[in-house]
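Chapter review. Work through the record for Glycosyl transferase, group 1 family protein before attempting the end-of-chapter questions.
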Amino acid sequence: MKLLIIFPSEIRSGAEEYALTIGKAGINQGWEVNAAFPQTEKTISLIKDFQEIGVTYNPLDIAPVDGKRLKLFREHIPHCYRTFSLLEKVKPDVVHLTVPWPFWCFDTLVTCAVLNIPTVVVFQLFPGYYHYSKLRLKAYQWAYNRKQKWIAISNNNRHFISESFKIPQEELSVIYNEAKPSSEFLNYSPEDTVNLRHQVGQEIGICPNDIILLTVGRLHSQKGYQDLV
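Structure tokens for Glycosyl transferase, group 1 family protein:
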């Protein structure tokens, strides 16, 4: 089985770590795994990590150019051509497409549909209802019916995908992103936890009985920090 993992990111964040996890799972299953995404200063470490687990890296510049004019010539046509060239080169049995934002990866998703390649599309961030033009909406719906399986990462995520693309919720699967605690943490005794909490409290200058709230993520309104505060 030959798996091709594609995403458009120019940075390394949660969605990209998710793609790396999929790559590791493919390798563990004995598959031949390729990964394709932009090569930038911020993805160099990600490229290295993919290669270290046995994944073949392919440079693929499909980073969005939102906000720029003439997107047909600056983005859509080049992205379709680059995706088509990659698919012809790798010839995957299945494509795993990670979509970090609702409007991204449109050209790659449609190109996979044109070639009728089985494709799993995972929408990582879909924070609300989005309006698509009639033409683009029809293109998405057509692609969806061309051997594609669309995945949401939460029920809330699935609701917005369903409403935006006019696809029944029951046709969309939900697979939560997992987070595995380190083995070191799992081996902590209750006493270790108390001692560690005391140490952290001293380092950041809080009282022993103060409540600590911790969240990990980029500082963006989509992450809901305003609700936490």
